[in-house]
User: Fold this.
Amino acid sequence: MGVRILFIHPERIVREVVRKVLFQQFGDKAHCAPDTVSGLVAAKKRRPNLVFIYWRGSDLDAFDCYGRLRAMPGMKEIPVVFMGILCWRLWGKDPKEFFPKLQELGVSGYLNQPFRLDDLIEARTTVLNGGSYYSEEQNHRPFRM
Assistant:
């Protein structure tokens, strides 16, 4: 039986592929939103079991969206995975320092982009089973601390 997933990402083709794959693989009902503001509206209406948030939103960044999501009644324990390009050479943030900060906030994972569909599936399954999933820049494999 599938779960309700909210997938917030600005690229339409990515949203369409993810929606289709999650339904075909698991029977998940993925609601996709193009930006964090419409994603928050959808979260309030649909009460997802899992949320994926694109890191650099056009309106709110992932941290703002995450904070507002957590403030909604019944959403404090829902697993959330951030997505985006993790290029620590550009940001000056080493994943070994950045990922623990996300974990301290309660973020369940980070899916590096571009991601493969098997990475998305692994992230989905891992966090829904109570684990955490953090992928590295170089090889898109889970980051282990």
The chain has one domain: 4-134. Confidence is low (pLDDT under 50) at residues 137-145. Residues 12-26 form the longest helix (15 residues). Strands lie at 4-8, 29-33, 50-54, 80-84, 109-112, 133-134.
